[in-house]
Specification:
It is found in: Cell membrane. The chain is mainly alpha-helical. The chain has two domains: 421 residues, MFS general substrate transporter like domains (Growth Hormone, Chain: A, Up-down Bundle); 33 residues, no CATH class.
C-alpha cells in the first residue's frame, strides 16, 4: 500500500515541532558560546593571565582567546557540514551539542593562572577551540532542520526559529552574570564566574532529550533515498559554488555587530566609563529582549516584499544607529545608553532573522549544510571573533571610541552590498523559487517523466544537467 499523502495540518505540525526543537537547541549552544564572551569581558583577563600586565592588555588577550573559538568555527563547519550532508542533520546536531557541553563545563572547572601558570591560558584556548568547532557545525544544521521541514514557500520564516536561539542564548548568558554581579569582587573572581559554565551541563541534558526525538528533514531524506549524497560536499561547494560562499560571507558582518555591543562595549563601559557590572549588564539585557521580539519580523518582511527592498529597509538605518550607540553609552546615562543600544539593535536583529533563510535557498540540498556553514564560518573567522579584538585595539591605540564607531558602521555597509549582490544571483521574489530551487524542481520533474517512460533516471538526470548547467545548482525545495 502506498504511503498516505500528509495533510497541510500534518506538515504544519511537523514544521512547528522542528522549529521549536531547532530554537531550543541553538539557545543552549549560543548560551554556552556567549557566556565565554561575557566572562572574557569581565574576568578572564584578570584570572587567566599574569597580574603584572599593563592596563588593558589582559582584556585584549582575553578577547584573543575569544577569537580562537571563531578561528575554529570553519573547522567545525567543514567537519559537521560533511557529516550533515552525508549522514543527516539530526545525528550531526546531537554530536555538536555534546561537544559544546563538554567544552563549556571544562572551562568552568579550569584552574587559574595563579594555580597552574601558563597552562591556564593554554587550556582555556584549547577548550574555546572545542567550543568553536561545535558551534561551527551547529548553526547550519539547526537552520536546515527548521527550513527544510517548513511548508512550501515558508523556508525563510521557519529558519527564523533557529535564529531566535542567538538572542535567547545571549539573554540567558547575560542574565546569568547579571545575578552574579552583586557578589563581592573577590568571590566573583574566585568561583562565582564558574556557575554559568557548570550550569551548562543541565541545559545540554535537556537539549539532548529534545534532539533525540527529532525527525530528519524531508529534504535530507530525499537525498539519502535517491542516493545523491556527495562524496566530498565541501569540495563540491568550493568547486561550483565558491562565489555564493564569498557573497554569503560578505553578507554576514552585520550579524557579528553583537560583539561590538555585548563584549567590547561591556568591557569598555565597566573598565573605563565607570558603569557598574550589573548596570551595564541590565542595559544589554534590555537590548536582547528587544532583539528577541523584533528579530522574527525581519523574516516576515523578507517573505512579503521584494527581498532587496526589505534588506535596504533593515540595513540602511544601521549605518547611522550603530555608530551613534557608542556616543549614547559615553554619556554614562542609563536611559540614554539603553535607548541607544535598543535602537541600534533593531536593524541588525531583523537582518539576522532573515539572512539564514536567504542563504539556505542558495545551495543545493545535497551540499546545503556544507555551503551554509562555509559562508557563515568564513565570516566568523575573519570578522566575528576579531570584532572585540579590533575594537579594543582601536581604543588602546587612539584613546577614542570614534574609530570603533566608524568600524561598526562599515560592517553594515559591507553586508548591504553583498546581500544585494547575492539576491541578484539567487532570486529576490519571495513568492518564487530561488534559482537553485527552480533547477531542482526541473530535475525532479525530469526524473518523474523518465520513471513513467521506463528510462534510467540517473542517466537522464545527468544528461539534463549537461544540457542545462543551471541544474547543477539544484536544491530540494524547502
Amino acid at each position: 500500500m502506498a504511503p498516505s499523502t500528509p495533510t497541510d495540518a500534518d506538515i504544519t505540525k511537523k514544521a512547528r515541532k522542528a522549529g521549536i526543537a531547532s530554537f531550543i537547541g541553538t539557545t543552549i549552544e549560543w548560551y554556552d558560546f556567549y557566556i565565554y564572551g561575557t566572562a572574557a569581558a569581565l574576568v578572564f583577563g584578570e584570572i587567566f593571565f599574569a597580574s603584572d600586565l599593563p592596563a588593558g592588555v589582559g582584556t585584549l588577550l582575553a578577547f584573543v582567546t575569544l577569537w580562537a573559538g571563531f578561528l575554529a568555527r570553519p573547522i567545525g563547519g567543514v567537519i559537521f557540514g560533511h557529516l550533515g550532508d552525508r549522514i543527516g542533520r539530526k545525528n550531526t546536531l546531537v554530536i555538536t551539542l555534546i561537544m559544546m557541553g563538554i567544552a563549556t563545563v571544562g572551562i568552568g572547572l579550569l584552574p587559574t593562572y595563579a594555580q597552574i601558570g601558563i597552562w591556564a591560558p593554554i587550556l582555556l584556548v584549547a577548550l574555546r577551540v572545542l567550543q568553536g568547532v561545535a558551534v561551527g557545525g551547529e548553526w547550519g544544521g539547526a537552520v536546515l532542520i527548521a527550513s527544510e521541514n517548513a511548508p512550501k514557500g515558508k523556508g525563510v520564516l521557519y529558519s527564523a526559529f533557529a535564529q531566535q536561539g542567538s538572542p535567547a542564548g545571549n539573554l540567558l548568558a547575560t542574565m546569568a552574570f547579571f545575578f552574579l554581579a552583586a557578589m563581592p569582587t573577590p568571590e566573583f573572581l574566585l568561583w562565582g564566574w564558574r556557575i554559568p559554565f557548570l550550569f551548562s551541563a543541565l541545559l545540554v541534558i535537556v537539549g539532548m532529550v529534545i534532539r533525540l526525538k527529532l525527525e530528519e528533514s524531508d529534504a535530507m531524506k530525499a537525498v539519502l533515498a535517491k542516493k545523491k549524497v556527495v562524496k566530498l560536499p565541501i569540495g563540491e561547494v568550493l568547486r561550483k559554488h565558491w562565489v555564493l560562499v564569498l557573497l554569503g560571507a560578505g553578507a554576514l558582518p552585520l550579524a557579528q555587530v553583537t560583539y561590538f555591543k555585548n563584549t567590547f562595549a561591556l568591557s569598555w563601559a565597566t573598565s573605563e566609563l565607570g558603569y557598574e557590572r550589573g548596570t551595564f549588564l541590565a542595559i544589554i539585557a534590555i537590548a536582547l529582549v528587544v532583539q528577541f521580539i523584533v528579530q522574527p519580523f525581519g523574516a516576515v518582511l523578507v517573505s512579503r516584499i521584494d527581498m532587496r527592498k526589505a534588506i535596504c529597509l533593515m540595513v540602511v538605518p544601521e549605518l547611522f544607529l550603530m555608530p551613534a550607540m557608542f556616543y549614547a553609552i559615553r554619556t554614562e546615562s542609563f536611559a540614554i545608553a539603553a535607548i541607544g543600544m535598543c535602537l541600534a539593535t533593531i536593524p541588525h536583529s531583523m537582518f539576522y532573522g532573515a539572512i539564514a533563510g536567504i542563504l539556505a535557498r542558495a545551495f543545493p540540498a545535497n551540499i546545503r549544510y556544507s555551503g551554509l556553514s562555509a559562508a557563515y564560518q568564513l565570516c566568523s573567522l575573519i570578522v566575528g571573533g576579531g570584532t572585540p579584538v579590533l575594537a579594543q585595539w582601536i581604543l588602546n591605540s587612539s584613546g577614542s571610541v570614534t574609530g570603533v564607531a566608524i568600524a561598526a558602521g562599515m560592517y553594515a555597509a559591507v553586508s548591504l552590498v553583498c546581500t544585494l549582490m547575492l539576491l541578484n544571483r539567487t532570486g529576490y521574489d519571495p513568492k518564487a523559487l530561488s534559482t537553485a530551487e527552480q533547477s531542482d524542481e526541473d530535475e525532479l520533474e525530469l526524473e518523474r517523466r523518465d520513471g513513467e517512460d521506463g528510462i534510467d533516471s540517473s542517466v537522464s538526470v545527468q544528461d539534463g544537467i549537461a544540457q542545462n548547467p543551471t541544474a547543477g545548482t539544484a536544491s530540494v525545495r524547502t
